[in-house]
Specification:
Spo0b-associated Gtp-binding Protein, Chain: A, Rossmann fold, GMP Synthetase, Chain A, domain 3, 3 domains, six-stranded mixed β-sheet, five-stranded mixed β-sheet, 10 helices, about 25% strand
């Protein structure tokens, strides 16, 4: 099962604005009519109840939304870029990864839930946008903004009400098949189940989703065996059925060992309510041990059941007890902690530093403006200087001691201050 993938996503760049003038017979002084560029497409992650794994995403590493179209004459705006929808199963956590940190941005638990992960670039303004009473024929147009680009980490945690945990070969798959309509692979060797399996259990008028959590052995929290990959699926469950092998030399030691792995992986998971069931009581040697096992486990593990998943003995009573306990804990245990989203920081003030004889301006708004301007045009350079002064960059440079003819760098652009 593919339950964790990393993707690089790129939103579409905005289209460029255009310099154009109205030219029609009998219409003198037609004026500017250059249209704006179209917005670049954004990237969204969308929950789809029809999907069960992230496998389809594992075969493609890079994803990109559509680019915005360039503006046209007659004030026609360029076409907007097509948005990109990345479909994922319910229960997918979406993280944004950078060099500094990895931050949770969405927890998709409802069908059709949609979250933007990369915003498309804004389209550049055409020369119509720059017309004023003193400049009625501007020859300035903006380039489109680049779309956002980021790395995503998608992690799937299956949404189930109850999880079956325990050592390999204790009968988890058989119990799931007996209690529900699920048909997991069943064989007489460890790690038969290579991925979590879900089934729906009906008890009276109540139904709940039961999941087998495979691969738990000592050291699973460190990646030993298969438990490292599947422990995360147990985090969303409200209740655990801890299945023990009645033929084990010490079921109590097994119980303690698995619980230790749960706690080391996630302390709250180690405290999740449990029902303990001893399996394989259809075997004569296990049936003979029931009084001793009841005495050994009864005062330690809490609710205790003796069952045979193979013959279904005791399974109906176990599921009935599970339904009752599930109803009791539903209000106490949250399926998943809500993601906390904080607003981004306000625009930073203008910061001026020195690198040799160059004044370096750090101000995101000014950097974005320069990135959109065609500085080969004298008119565009004059407009840029006016905008920098309006933004407060001129005052900050003057305070830092800039003089006419000094070199000033804003973003990747270096120019001569006048």
């Amino acid at each position: 099962m593919i339950d964790r993938v990393e993707l690089q996503v790129k939103a579409g760049d905005g289209g460029n604005g255009v310099v154009s003038f109205r030219r029609e017979k009998y219409v003198p002084f037609g004026g500017p009519d250059g249209g704006n560029g179209g917005r670049g497409g954004s990237v969204y992650v969308v929950a789809d109840a029809q999907l069960t794994t992230l496998y389809s995403l594992s075969r493609r590493r890079h994803w990109q939304a559509g680019k915005g179209g360039n503006g046209l004459g007659k004030k026609m705006q360029g076409k907007h870029g097509e948005d990109l929808l990345i479909k994922v199963p319910l229960g997918t956590l979406v993280y944004k990864r950078s060099d500094a940190e990895t931050v949770l941005v969405a927890d998709l638990v409802e069908d059709a839930q949609k979250e933007m992960v990369a915003r498309g670039g804004r389209g550049g303004a055409g020369n119509t946008h720059f017309a004023t009473s003193t400049n009625q024929a501007p020859r300035i147009a903006e380039k489109g903004e680049p779309g956002e680009e980021t790395w995503l980490v998608l992690e799937l945690k299956l949404i189930a009400d109850v999880g079956i945990i325990g050592y390999p070969s204790v009968g988890k798959s058989t119990l799931l098949a007996t209690a529900s309509a699920a048909r997991p692979k069943i064989a007489d060797y460890p790690f038969t189940t290579q991925e979590p399996v879900l089934g729906v259990v009906t008890v009276g008028n109540r139904t709940f989703v039961l999941a087998e959590i495979p691969g738990l052995i000592e050291g699973a929290h460190r990646g030993k065996g298969l438990g490292h990959y599947f422990l995360r699926h147990a985090e969303r469950t409200r209740l655990l059925i801890h299945l023990l092998d009645g033929t084990s030399e010490s079921p109590l030691v097994d119980w303690k060992s698995v619980n230790r792995e749960l706690g080391l992986f996630n302390p709250t998971l180690g405290q999740r309510p449990q029902i303990v069931a001893v399996n394989k009581v259809d075997l004569p040697e296990v049936e003979a041990r029931i009084p001793a096992l009841r005495e050994q486990l009864g005062g330690v593990v809490g609710p205790l059941h003796f069952i045979s998943a193979a013959t279904t003995a005791g399974v109906r009573q176990l599921m009935a007890r599970t339904a009752v306990m599930l109803e009791a804990v539903e209000e106490q245990v949250a399926v998943a902690a809500p993601a906390v989203f904080r607003p981004g920081p306000r625009e930073k003030p203008v910061v001026v530093s020195h690198e040799g004889n160059v004044f370096v301006v750090s101000f995101p708004q000014a950097e974005r403006l320069i990135g959109r301007m065609d500085l080969t045009s004298p008119e565009a350079r004059a407009y840029l200087r006016r905008q920098l002064i309006r933004m407060g960059v001129g005052a900050a440079l003057k305070k830092a001691g800039v003089a006419s003819g000094d070199r000033v760098r804003v973003g990747e652009m270096e120019l001569e201050w006048q």
